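Per reviewer request, we include the raw input and output of the structure prediction for the construct analysed in the revised manuscript.
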Amino acid sequence: ETELWPVGSGARKFVVTLTHGAGDSTRGQVTLNVPKGWSAPAAQPFHFSREGERASFTFTLPPPQKLTAGSYEIFAVAQDDAGNRYDGGSFTIAYSHIRPRSYYRDAKSTIHSASLTLPHLARIGYIRGAADRVPEALQTIGLKVQLLDGKALDRTDLSSFRAIIVGPRAY
């Protein structure tokens, strides 16, 4: 995923999910590989005993003390006790109107850091569109967003919002 971090913002949480693909037991550690100058969070142990077992691990990652504008890559890496490294995964796209497709992707997040000056917006109303993740992005940079659906539009006093944003394909 890609994420925007305003310069001067605090730590963020990263969730790494592992799925066990072997029939036997596997132990190891999962960690984040971070850019030079960043403090890597402690590795977390994992143990799987059956095929298909899943576990999620949450890491809190602070930016360096002097985060400058630019792009940074964070990698998730699992290593089992036998020394095998896992740094990617298979992702499946499945919708009712298409045949399911799987593809491989690196376990990587790209952080774009920028100096942002935002207007003071106490409350933003947001009408979500199809496959829309803009409200979460706005919340990530510190804006207070309230999702509005059809019922809310019909029954809510919209004058309490400083701005209302209509997401892509929200019709």
